[in-house]
């Protein structure tokens, strides 16, 4: 298999949803800077993300909705009618400078990743993972659903057994809804129970699998689900392609969830699934603490390349992390290891009954996968 590729863009640098929004923080740009400062990037394996055209986006999204997004960017405003119909400028989905170009760039990157892996391969797209986007509605800070568009690109290549795996703290509702009537795509989401969007509490149609976990979910519990549910599903499905949405908001220090993972859990999942199909695409996703997000996603790129995180970051990487600011409580006195390390300290514990009960549902999950394959 050819070496992994990294897709990014400078559009994320300086782009913000607004000073008080959770996505005021730099994430993709910091991740790319950190990867480069570690000496982990051969620039020949870096690709600039193309911006998806309205015609390409219409493979999934309503053309009227796309037109409304472009109007919002051009005018930096939204009409009452568009706000009500498309939720642009509402529900935490603000009008900002690149409100069409930025998500269209993320979508273009994930669609490019699907094309680049047509014959096999591994691609990381940290700007992807906007899994809440709906066909004709902005939702959960997501305007376009790059994951759906990338999965459709794989389907258009003739693939018929695809796994979309989502370990974001929030349920990947937009992707599940998009493929609820398509047995070629199995969606498997590990997310915090009782957290917005308050979906994903049960399994849906054939192949819509959900593992809602309790607050405090930690590394040992993720490992139990990985080996007791995720890998058995992969073994049963034998997917031709796997897309992993690797949202970093499950890391303990994230302000928008109450899970207790370290980034070791994300690294373990990536390492365990990346070679289970000939095609593997790793996306970003949620994450609202700039230090924990960049360290998690840069470490993910390291896992794809067999890199072991240094015990102490080199001065160039440390400077990237010390240059960040965060206007929340955690940013007033950040711990020293956020500047000096890439790998978190492990967060282990006992597997609680609520998580064990999810493992007991494996036979039903496998039966659902078998129905998809039938």
Question: How would you summarize what this structure contains?
Answer:
This protein is an alpha/beta fold. 38% of the residues lie in helices and 11% in strands.
Morphology: globular
Give the percentage of residues in beta strands.
Answer: 5-15%
Helical content stands at 25-40%
Number of helices: 14
Could you give a short account of the major beta sheet? 8 strands, parallel
Listing every helix as H and every strand as E from the N terminus to the C terminus, the arrangement reads EHEHHHHEHEHEEHEHEHHHHH
Residue windows where pLDDT falls under 50 for at least 5 positions: none
Strand order of the largest sheet: 2-1-3-8-7-4-5-6
Class based on secondary structure composition and strand pairing = alpha/beta
Number of DSSP strand runs: 8
Q: Give average pLDDT, whole number.
A: 96
Q: State Rg.
A: 19 Å
N-end to C-end Cα span: 30 Å
Structure description:
Helices cover 38% and strands 11% of the residues. It has 374 residues and is of the alpha/beta class. Strands 2-1-3-8-7-4-5-6 form an eight-stranded parallel β-sheet, sandwiched between helices. Strand 4 (162-166), helix 7 (173-178) and strand 5 form a beta-alpha-beta unit. The protein is globular, with a radius of gyration of 19 Å.
Write the layout of secondary structure elements.
Blueprint: E1 5-8, H1 28-37, E2 46-48, H2 54-57, H3 63-75, H4 80-86, H5 101-116, E3 121-125, H6 146-156, E4 162-166, H7 173-178, E5 185-192, E6 208-213, H8 219-237, E7 241-245, H9 263-273, E8 279-283, H10 290-304, H11 315-322, H12 337-340, H13 353-359, H14 362-373
Parallel strand pairs: 1-2, 1-3, 3-8, 4-5, 4-7, 5-6, 7-8
Helix pairs in contact: 1-10, 1-11, 5-6, 8-9, 8-13, 8-14, 9-10
């Amino acid at each position: 298999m050819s070496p992994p590729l990294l897709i990014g863009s400078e559009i994320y640098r300086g782009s913000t949803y607004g000073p008080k929004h959770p996505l005021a923080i730099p994430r993709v740009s910091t991740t790319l800077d950190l990867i480069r400062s570690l000496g982990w990037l051969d620039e020949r394996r870096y690709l600039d993300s193309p911006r998806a055209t309205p015609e390409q986006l219409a493979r999934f999204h309503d053309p009227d909705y796309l037109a409304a997004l472009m109007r919002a960017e051009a005018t930096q405003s939204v009409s009452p009618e568009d706000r009500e119909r498309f939720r642009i400028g509402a529900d935490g989905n603000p009008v900002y400078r690149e409100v069409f170009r930025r998500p269209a760039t993320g979508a273009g990157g994930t669609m490019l990743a699907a094309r680049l892996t047509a014959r096999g391969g591994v691609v990381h797209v940290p700007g992807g993972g906007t899994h809440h986007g709906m066909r004709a509605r902005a939702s959960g800070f997501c305007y376009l659903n790059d994951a759906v568009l990338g999965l459709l690109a794989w389907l258009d290549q003739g693939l018929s057994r695809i796994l979309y795996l989502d370990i974001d703290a929030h349920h990947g509702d937009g992707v599940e809804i998009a493929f609820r009537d398509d047995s070629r795509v199995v969606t498997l989401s590990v997310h915090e129970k009782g957290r917005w969007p308050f979906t994903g509490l049960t399994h849906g149609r054939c192949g819509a699998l959900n593992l809602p976990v309790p607050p405090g979910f930690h590394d040992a519990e993720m490992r139990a689900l990985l080996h007791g549910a995720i890998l058995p599903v992969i073994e049963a499905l034998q997917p031709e392609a796997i897309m992993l949405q690797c949202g970093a908001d499950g890391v303990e220090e994230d302000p928008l969830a109450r899970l207790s993972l370290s980034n070791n859990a994300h690294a373990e999942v990536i390492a365990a699934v990346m070679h289970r199909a000939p095609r593997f695409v790793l996306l970003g996703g949620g994450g609202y603490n700039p230090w924990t997000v960049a360290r998690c996603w840069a470490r993910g790129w390291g896992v794809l390349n067999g890199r072991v995180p240094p015990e102490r970051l080199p001065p160039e990487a440390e400077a990237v992390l010390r240059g960040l600011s965060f206007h929340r409580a955690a940013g007033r006195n950040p711990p020293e290891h956020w500047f000096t390390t890439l790998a978190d300290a492990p967060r282990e514990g006992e597997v609680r009954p609520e998580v064990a009960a999810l493992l007991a549902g494996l036979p039903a999950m496998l039966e659902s996968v078998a129905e998809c394959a039938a």
